[in-house]
Amino acid sequence: MVTREDTKSRTTISRRDWIEAAYGELARSGERGVGINALAARLGVTKGSFYWHFKDRAALMRALLDRWAHERTDEMLARALGSTPDPLERLRRIQALGREVAPIDRAMRLWAQHSPEADEAVRLADRALLGHITGCLDELGFAPGDAHLRALLMLRAWVGGYLVPSPDADGDPPGGDPYDRTLGIFLARPADS
């Protein structure tokens, strides 16, 4: 039986509202922290609202994977790359945006360790990102194999940056902006012998 409160919930809280609330919780506390009761309380609605939009928690989790994959492959890269023709600036933007989305990216990668669906989403997103990084390196004049290897190392270093905390007490090593220095190291070419 549908109550008046459930009807009100359906008209005020959309499927997208549930997904966004769950996405925020995923970033805060990981995949296991995404619970229907907690989300309903956060949204100020009953669980009936949830079941109006989703069959079960698994359906919500699939929607989260879709949301994240879309953001990583489309929205994120479009924002990062913008309209700049400069490949170095695009790499800086990708690196900066990676720091911005680190909490959700970290949660997704941890989820992917025990979920084939999350693992596939992460792999698809990483392939798209790797293609963009490789393209920038190609434009900067690196040989194709070298560009791909450097792109892979850059992606791994950037992801490792938020999966592995700095062993330094103050966080960043001395000597200027560590992000620019890191990018400089990846773009360095061996000296001619």
Could you please describe the fold and organization of this structure?
With 193 residues, this protein is mostly helical. The chain has two domains: 54 residues, Homeodomain-like (Arc Repressor Mutant, subunit A, Orthogonal Bundle), CATH 1.10.10.60; 125 residues, Tetracycline Repressor, domain 2 (Orthogonal Bundle). It is 74% helix and 0% strand. It is elongated, with a radius of gyration of 20 Å.
Can you tag this structure with a few keywords?
193 residues, mainly alpha, Arc Repressor Mutant, subunit A, Tetracycline Repressor, domain 2, 10 helices, elongated
Second-tier CATH architecture of the largest domain: Orthogonal Bundle
Shape: elongated
Ends: how far apart? 80 Å
**What's the main sheet like?**
none
Kindly state the percentage of residues in helix.
Answer: over 70%
Q: What proportion of the residues form beta strands (DSSP E)?
A: under 5%
Order of helices and strands: HHHHHHHHHH
Average pLDDT works out at 84
The unreliable regions are: 6-11
Which secondary-structure class do the elements indicate? mainly alpha
Q: How large, in whole angstroms, is the Cα Rg?
A: 20 Å
The number of helical segments is: 10
CATH topology value of the largest domain: Tetracycline Repressor, domain 2
- Overall domain count: 2
What is the number of strand segments? 0
CATH class of the largest domain: Mainly Alpha
Secondary-structure blueprint:
Blueprint: H1 4-12, H2 15-29, H3 36-43, H4 47-53, H5 57-81, H6 87-100, H7 102-112, H8 116-139, H9 144-163, H10 178-187
